[in-house]
Amino acid sequence: MSLKRIAVYCGASKGKDPVYMERGYELGKYMAEHGYELVFGAGSVGIMGAIQNGVLDHGGSAIGVMPRSLDDKEITSQRLTELVLVDSLHGRKAKMSELADAFILAPGGAGSLEEFFETYSWAQIGIHDKPMAVFNINNFFIPLQTMLDEMIDAGFIDAKYRALAPLYDDLEALFESLENYESVGTRSYD
């Protein structure tokens, strides 16, 4: 699989530990150095801004997707390679999905999880069949993995989806998994 554009869902906050911003910047740098374009929520602050800066500081491209109504509130980056304005948050997610060849979840809050889980559920029902991975900075997503495992064990998510969005703290392994993605198929209704 040849991936060009990667959508990253992440926070507009920086978190309490500086490691989130440092590793976010590393993610952006890695993307630029390996020819991946960033598709993201267009914010200039928090881990979102760190990832963007890592991309742009190393000669990469950053495509930001921002709802018009949040253009001022979310501190839209002025450094973007391209800004795409949409009518709503729903439009933002749809546009990011349309533009992206793959998806990464990095640390963030409820909005990041909401974006990720919509993409996750879209994969389950066949709206897309694109690779997904989770950048597990500082073991941030271990509780999320535990919750997904509980949902699988309880029979609410098919066991095959254990492999849908694996956790990685190593960037090389993360991107290798995206590049070598094998479809897990759509949900079965038993």
UniProtKB/TrEMBL annotation:
The lineage of its organism: Bacteria, Bacillati, Bacillota, Bacilli, Bacillales. GO terms for molecular function: hydrolase activity, hydrolyzing N-glycosyl compounds. GO terms for cellular component: cytosol. It comes from the Bacteria. Keywords: Cytokinin biosynthesis, Hydrolase. Its EC number is 3.2.2.n1. Gene3D superfamilies: 3.40.50.450. The keyword Zinc does not apply. This is Cytokinin riboside 5'-monophosphate phosphoribohydrolase. Belongs to the LOG family. NCBIfam families: Rossman fold protein, TIGR00730 family.
